[in-house]
Amino acid sequence: MAQSKENTNNSARSKAAAAAQSTGAPVAQTGEKRPRTTRRPYYNRRPRRPQQPREAAVPIHIYPLGGLGEVGKNMTVYECNGDMIIVDCGLVFPDSDMYGVDMVIPDFTFVVQNKDKIKGLLITHGHEDHIGSIPYLLQKLDLPIYGTRLTCGLIRNKLEEFGLAGKTKFVEITPRQKIKLGCFTIEPIHVNHSIPDAVAFAIDSPAGTIIQTGDFKIDYTPLACGVTDLSTLAEYGQRGVLALLSDSTNSERPGFTATEQKVAAGVRNLFARARNKRIIIATFASNIYRVQQIIDLAVEDGRKVAFSGRSMVNNTAMAQELGYMHIPEGTLISVDELNQYPPEQVVLITTGSQGEPLSALSRMASCSHRQVRVGPGDFIIISANPIPGNEKSVTKIVNGLLLLGAEVIYESMYDVHVSGHACQEEQKLMLTLTRPKYFLPVHGEYKQLKKHALTAASLGIPTSNILIAENGSNVILSQDEIKLGEPVTAGAVMVDGLGVGDVGNVVLRDRKHLSEDGLVIIVATVDSKTGKVLAGPDLVSRGFVYVRENESLMDGAQSIVENALDRCVDEHVRDWNSVKTRVREALSSYIYRRTKRSPMILPILMEV
């Protein structure tokens, strides 16, 4: 058997050799080792082909100037190849310890320093935390504004108050309409929110594609405008998304956000419950969906509708003009006409759902509204949840309305409000569709950003590719890495009346001091040559003690001041600043010993 196999192999080898000779091909050596050839000397070897250096990946810089570690003040700057764009420019309401402050806006120092690089300002939607700071930015530099039709309308209303509407270039955009700004190509993507015409942005650059969601939720039964454009988001995910910046406001809430349809059913039940009472509903002036729902229910119930609050009147008029709101003829009346109708025939839609001190609802609660007097015949619905930090203000208004005898529905008592922000399952869907390489949670306090980061990690995104940044961070992204560069100027600028940035920590500290301990003013007339007191000293107390009930304290204080002035004369102290300092220290020490309080002391010395 073995011999037959060997014969077969020999015959195969001979056939192969014959075939090779006929074709001129070399004979393959089978079963035998090839003789080893001599290696070339190193000086005869061919030089190796030089290695081409790997080209570095193009980076993109992301500078969050607001919206991280806080709810509101959203503003993000992108930079790539020397071009910059800005997404959103919002404000945040002041905290309770920001005495006298009307609003807080981002610090625009970095933007102003780079104004020649900026190609445009893109806005995701028309809520105050995304558009509220635009007038203050445009006072520093001119920028074209890119936004959807309703968003541009809301911004125009705001700019008209500042005289900037005619000077600003508006570019109306629509979903899936791409915009070219420098090296950036931006595609708006329709998303659901509590306001129409909200969009996310797919920002394409030489470094890759970044998706910034803006505020969003996924509502399968929206009131208008259709469902969030999940197919476009999925298309980007298939092509490759470098990074996702996603709304974190509801990251601590499991499940899905309720649909706006739920509010209509809840408010309809409350209309039936109100019966013969006048209905007053407070909501956000920019929540066009909610206002339209209320108008529709009022028409069903045979009631007239009136608006109160400047922003409510302006926004609804603009929404009607642009076709986003429809009010049947004969339904709308002015607030001055309310008292001409029986209570059961009217609905008043007003501002003040966040407890703003100057809002229409706040003035009703304090009985200072010129046209509306609240009483037992009123049924009041606050159709909003308090923004973090506004809880005390809202509670104060609710208490005031209840004391006036009104019935008040607020917060989660009934289905009168649903969030416009995605809960955990919607956030997971966004992450799964876009499949980003890197993830940056945005729009939320740190605990919300952290929870969103954990959700992303649970879906398989490496923790090394997840970054919780801060306002002022310089996030550098490329296909190779994510890292932090040198931070940029960012912070909070307080707006107090017409003053922007006039109020700082020192002023706030003084206001806090005044609010807690009050003020004592010392007034005296002195001889400019000798320093002797010619009249006074007189002490005036404001916010410290009631003088008539504390005469012994104030008499003692006056003696302390007199003695301090006399000592200055005896010691020949002629520097009036030194005199004031001595008087202030002596009186402060006396008052603290007697009361354990430290009022602000203001010496006024008039020289003659």
UniProtKB/TrEMBL annotation:
Catalytic residues identified in the record: D247 (proton donor), H421 (proton acceptor)
Protein family (similarity comment): Belongs to the metallo-beta-lactamase superfamily. RNA-metabolizing metallo-beta-lactamase-like family. Bacterial RNase J subfamily.
Any one of the GO CC terms: cytoplasm
First-level EC class: hydrolase
Amino acid composition bias (Basic residues), ranges on this chain: 36-51
Name under which the protein is recorded: Ribonuclease J
One MF annotation (Gene Ontology) recorded for this entry: 5'-3' RNA exonuclease activity
Main location: cytoplasm
Cofactors named for this entry: Zn(2+); Ca(2+)
Keyword Phosphoprotein: no
The encoding gene: rnj
Compositionally skewed regions (Polar residues) per UniProt: 1-10
Low complexity bias (residue ranges): 11-28
